[in-house]
């Protein structure tokens, strides 16, 4: 049994916490909503109201991290793509968190990041590819990764997820009925919530620390064929793509996930 703190029990963090509880671990979970504290408690998770700000961290962060062996950080940057990198709000939040991690004695950190750190590229993306983020969130995620990895007080594994999908979350719902969508021939780089959880489990079970993993399902139909098919399956208005708009041929490889972790993706859920 491991004592694990999950910073951010949201769309991914909450079902992850429940799964790790099922496996016999003890879980402390954080939320920024008082209304969600009871939901965490009812699930058997030790609940904490924790907010990270660019200037400060909640006082109860110490209790949240206390006695844990592992910290999983799963909080989205939530940044607008303004192009102004002068206000590194998310980076500052991570910087403010680090002294508390150091004082807690936690030695293992898993940071949930995104393949957006690579930007758009007409190539096969692996963990050896040098990131070139174009969005503000991608830029700050990459900086936050480096800050955590460079800290000598704990070991950090970075997990870069592709586009997140699940039973209640699928991008086709936002694309349905839209016209002149770009990149019709671009391959999709998606990952299902169940695979996100399965991969995190594999990292924890196999103690794969000081690692970097890209996590994207190894099937890459074009945007046009994939979202058209999904719209038909869900009886949605078909999206319309424009062949005159740019086509990025980026494919993110998950070969390292499959070989190092010996992980098999659950393709039937996509």
Question: What proportion strand?
Answer: 15-25%
Coarse morphology: globular
What number is the mean pLDDT?
Answer: 93
Query: What's the story with the biggest beta sheet?
Result: 7 strands, parallel
Quick structural summary:
The protein has about 270 residues and is α/β, with parallel strands linked by helices. The chain has nine helices and eleven strands. The protein has a seven-stranded parallel sheet with strand order 3-2-1-4-5-7-10, with helices on both faces.
SSE order and pairing:
Layout: E1 3-7, H1 13-22, E2 26-31, H2 37-42, E3 46-49, H3 61-65, E4 70-73, H4 89-104, E5 108-114, E6 124-125, H5 136-150, E7 155-161, E8 163-165, H6 172-175, E9 190-192, H7 193-206, E10 212-215, H8 223-233, E11 251-252, H9 255-260
Parallel strand pairs: 1-2, 1-4, 2-3, 4-5, 5-7, 6-11, 7-10, 8-9
Helix pairs in contact: 4-5
